[in-house]
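name: query_chain
kind: protein
chains: 1
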Amino acid sequence: MNILKKDICVFSPSFPSYQRITVGGYLIVDQKHLGVSEYYCYNSTQVENSFIPFLLKTQTNFPIGQIDLKDVVKGQKTILSKINKLYQKGNKIIVIDSTSEQHLADIFSSGLKFDGSVLFAGSAGLANNFPNIYNKNENLKINIENSESPVIVVAGSRNSIMEDQINYLKNRVNFAELKIDLEQIFSNKDRILDNYNAKCIEAIKANRDLVIHTNAIYNEEKLINKKLMLEYKLSFRELEIHIKTFLGELISKILKNNCVRNLFLTGGDIALGVCEELGIYDMDILDELLPGIPLAIANYKNYKLNIITKAGGFGKKDTLYNLINKLKNY
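structure:
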């Protein structure tokens, strides 16, 4: 906002098609407050961890205002009036409730009518309204290379939804599975990396898809994560960083001598960790395979990588299976 000299930020992170809504400034996921969901990260109380204005206040000194659902349901005119009043009172970030796609459309339209510069912030739910500005649809012909070759799925998310998606895949696709033992990566990292790398290369040479995931799903959290946090004196965030760095190093080793062209990175930390290790800092988005799940292409050394990124908790149990099929039949 400082660099772009924006007057206000319209902040609405709801994504109703994935059961993420905002009510009273609280983010609700799958009918649960964020603080009591699988996304709770231990760095504040459960109530505070659900309240968007509180989370923002830990990161910025900008004054923060709210527009409640009772006003959002009245439509664009009321939303715009509330934005103007909050701005006149000195608010710079305005958190706006939304529980439906129509609410997001009205919020977006109201922001465009604001007599000043606006930074829109949110998820794919809000972003889906941007193309409507141009009032045109174009059927683009997109060609990608090597989509039929083996796919490496890297799943570092603890979310149980991800585990369900992997289990669904097991019954339908003959893929190789590598389950990362988190306790081992702290004992002899280099040896474990070499061992895992050899197993992955064997699968790729056999032209098999490969799923790499950790043994730390949500329900095992107390047995695995807390034990490691105590033993190695790590915060929960430090443990997450160790995991993403290890997976990034593993993928870097695999790609160093093997022309893998298809990566599926699930979990924001994992996508960031892998891309950092590979030296990938920008991607071209080609398509949206499923709502909120893009297919992108990135330059890696002397060839291009097809990369799918997905939030760990996104989708139904058949989502992983459907995405791999979509990619291979592109």
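note: Residues 217-223 have pLDDT under 50 and may be disordered.
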